Amino acid sequence: FPGQGSQSVGMGQELAARRKADTAPLSAHLRSEIERLLPARKCSYDSICKWSGIPPRTLRRYLADESTTFAQLKDEVRRDNVRRALSTSDLDLTELAHYAGYYDPSSVTRNIPRWFGGEAGGKKGPSGNRPSFSRRSASRKGFGRKSSQPAANA
Question: Which of 55, 93, 101, 112 could form a disulfide with 38 if both were Cys (CB 3.0 to 4.6 A apart)?
Answer without folding.
Answer: 101
